[in-house]
Amino acid sequence: MTTDVIAKLHYWHDTPTVTGRFRQCHEDFKVTEQLEVAADEPGEHQWLWVYKKGANTTFVARQLAEFAGVSEREVSYAGLKDRHAETWQWFSVQLPGQDLLDWSQLEHPEFRVERAVKQAKKLKLGYHQGNHFVLRLRDVSNVDELKKRWDKAVAEGVPNYFGEQRFGHLGQNLTKARAWLTGELSRKQTRKWSRQQFGMLLSAARSYLFNKVVSARLEAGKVTPEQGDFMILDGSRSFFQIKELDEEILRRWQEGDILLSAPMAGSWRGEWHEHLSEFEHQVLEPEADLVAGLKQQRVDLARRALLIKPTAAEFKQLDESSVELRFTLVKGSFATSLLRELMVAMASEHYN
């Protein structure tokens, strides 16, 4: 299901004809979390800069908790990082009244703690500013064409789609979320689900609906602000509706101060037109049961930018068919969504 959902999403810069491979090994996909952390300070939270390779974030969190002798609930992180990659990210462990542990004693083939400092506050989800990526693409069919698409993506942005990893293996998260939120599953069937699992399924449903609205808008050519649209402030979660489209709104949009947005579906009070544009409402109407399920779970409606632009962008040709891409994306955005606009990724023969 996920493959179909992703495949049907509208391309912003036309369907790519370039083909290539990526993630043939962990080293082909590197992610470094962007978060400035102060030097050691008094506090009960031990912050850990962790390198991992071939392990997911939640697995590492469990190992850190076991080493520290605490519940996994005492371990937190700013964001989930890819398993099939080399990544660097921060974790925090709450250990009141304890000196900094000797984290170098924690040895594991899939991760290591490279730095440890004490901090006064707990690390929370979304606390980081973004992520820096280094991707190696191999067997690229046309490097010149790839470079043209890269330059256009950097200059104009790409759809801020949620990547396939948000929907689980073969779309299982989305399938299960739909069954739960539309009442197909009984309370008895979901009784043993963890809080984390519920959150994961809610996220899958909202991500699917967001992608659907973005795709429909791009396909309709609605790429400039219109009356009734909701604009999000750059670098913020704040948004407002355009009651009257004027030169000031257009100027701020052109300068990047405000961005076009699409809804992260959830509950609201009052009439729909106070929270959705007419176009968004029309796109979401066929998914009324799913939206109603989200409202019933009291998930707050939020907004997310329609497009993203990579920053600190570098393109380097390594040989006649290999390329290295370096770029930074704001938190919550997917490198695979950028890559989707650049080329058709062929299945890897060497990666597992």
From TrEMBL:
UniProt-recorded Gene Ontology molecular function terms: RNA binding; tRNA pseudouridine(13) synthase activity
Similarity section: Belongs to the pseudouridine synthase TruD family.
Name of the protein: tRNA pseudouridine synthase D
The EC number(s) this enzyme carries: 5.4.99.27
Catalytic activity: uridine(13) in tRNA = pseudouridine(13) in tRNA
Residue span, TRUD domain: 157-308
Enzyme class label: isomerase
Database matches in PROSITE patterns: TRUD
Origin species: Pseudidiomarina piscicola
Role played: Responsible for synthesis of pseudouridine from uracil-13 in transfer RNAs.
High-level lineage: Bacteria, Pseudomonadati, Pseudomonadota, Gammaproteobacteria, Alteromonadales
Gene Ontology, cellular component aspect: cytosol
Keyword Nucleotidyltransferase included in the entry's annotation: no
Key word tRNA processing present: yes
Gene3D superfamilies referenced in this protein's UniProt entry, alphabetically: TruD, catalytic domain, TruD, insertion domain
GO terms classed as biological process: tRNA pseudouridine synthesis
HAMAP family hit by this protein: TruD (MF_01082)
Active site: D82 (nucleophile)
InterPro entries in the record: PsdUridine_synth_cat_dom_sf, PsdUridine_synth_TruD, PsdUridine_synth_TruD_insert, TruD_catalytic, TruD_insert_sf, TruD_pseudoU_synthase
Gene name of this polypeptide: truD
Record keywords: Isomerase, tRNA processing
